[in-house]
Amino acid sequence: MNTKIAVVTALVALAGAASAFAQEGTQEFTNTQALSTKSRAEVQAELFTAQRAGEIQSGEASPAPVAASTLTRTQVQAEAREAQRLGVIPFGEAQTKVATEADLEAIRLAGQRAIQTPVASTNR
């Protein structure tokens, strides 16, 4: 008797759970046709005029950002070498040292020294 009650209870619970996920097979969409008061030629003429005036951009939504660095190539190379020497540039799967304020200052100074040091001439 208890088994029958348990089975009936389980079936009722499953039926209730299944109906909770049921949804209608069709969806109601509003009328997607829009009526226009302009002809196709008028719309194309407006588009052409706007394109000629530069009001419509093509391509990306916004222009690519322009990198504005105040450092020279020599400075960047010197700072990268110093950061690598200090071990603050990640490599492989090893743990990376977090740069301290002293490390950051040493890196900055390496870049400054690079532009103050005269470069030896290779022309002979």
Topology:
Blueprint: H1 2-20, H2 40-52, H3 73-86, H4 101-116
Helix pairs in contact: 3-4
Number of helices: 4
Cα radius of gyration in angstroms: 35 Å
- Which geometry do the CA atoms define? flat
SSE pattern, N- to C-terminal: HHHH
Total count of strands = 0
| Main pleated sheet | none
Q: Unreliable runs, pLDDT <50, ≥5 residues?
A: none
Structural class: mainly alpha
Strand content is under 5%
In helices, the fraction of residues equals: 40-55%
| Mean pLDDT across every amino acid position | 80
What's the end-to-end separation, in Å? 108 Å
Describe the structure.
The chain is mainly α. It has a domain at 73-116. It has 4 helices and no strands. Helix 3 packs antiparallel against helix 4. The longest helix has 19 residues, at 2-20. It starts with a helix and ends in an 8-residue tail after the last helix. 5% of the residues are buried.
Structure at a glance:
The chain is 50% helix and 0% strand. With 124 residues, the chain is mostly helical.
List keywords for this structure.
50% helix, mainly alpha, 4 helices, flat
